[in-house]
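Page 47, continued from p. 46.
Same chain as before, 383 aa.
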Amino acid sequence: MTKSIPIPLSKPSLLDVDIESAEKSMKSGRLVCGRMIETFERQLATYVKVRYAVCVSSGTAALHLGLLALGIGPGDDVIVPAFSYPASANAVEILGARPVFIDSEPNGFNIDVSRIENSITSRTRAIMIVHNFGWPVEINKIHALSRKYDIPIIEDAACALGSSIAGVRCGNLGKLAVFSFHPRKILTTGEGGAVVTGDLELAEKIKKLRNHGQDFSHGVDFVMPGFNYRMTEFQAAMGISQLNRYDLTLQERLKSADYYNRNLNDLKFLRPCLPEANRRLNYQTYVAFMTGDFRDDIIDHLKNYEIEAGIGTYSIPHTTYYSNKYNIDKFRFSGSLGAFKNIISLPLYNGITTYEQKHVVEALKKYKADKKGSRIKQTVKSL
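Result:
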């Protein structure tokens, strides 16, 4: 096959209309705390089918404020998936609480629901679930635990805008949920995030916390110590523009993911992740499992064909900070560590062509899975 244009792992889905919307907002002279934010929040809440949305400066800020609004602090425990981006645990740790890690489900990468109950104690204040790569977590048993122990569910739905399970959209499965609008996300405002909830009191508290603790109920007052976690007006304008076509965006991604699903099935060393009938995916990231310990060799192999591929995400307990603080060894969280070592993410973005995807598939088929083992290059403590 002739040499192709380099194929990146992802590209932000930004059209001229999105840029023009941001430019128009900037030219208005109102850069923060205006109508664009209010409109984006209202439309986002409608899309997710919740009552309230509060836009903030990042997905991590959304997690921080969501936990803080629930009263999480020193001495508290929060159930957290072991396999996720570190921000999920960092938001808990920053508040002085303790992340209680739960391993990944067998042959998967989301939280193992069957392991949660045994980790609940009198100090447990929340159960955080993460819809990794836009794959919804099986929620029914977690809802039962939430009711049984009166513990709220927090959704880290950073990657899951538009995904659903049993007809219910992610963001509408717990007490509150957070989204990210980072450039790797399908809907991006550069940086940015949001908290969504059906609880008016929580929404109002988060609005105060994002803006220095300001309260506008009776004039202007500062009623609590807060942060500068505001989203800008021009970011919101970009978000509104993309949200207006978001269903079409997801349809295009589904078509591209289906191409991989159909054409990678006959590879003996790679297992595509296929969703069950009750899950609707946004395919924020296209991931597959390797059947051997040679994921990083394949990433290097694809580089020779000018194709960018990457890992899935991280086994948080095995990163340096958490492994040192909580004395984690290689015999714990084996499912999470296995996912970290063996999941590969392949190029998928709006605008990827069939020719580009064919190039990825053909390059993978040229790989000889006869290596002795992969070199895990990412930063992780040697165990």
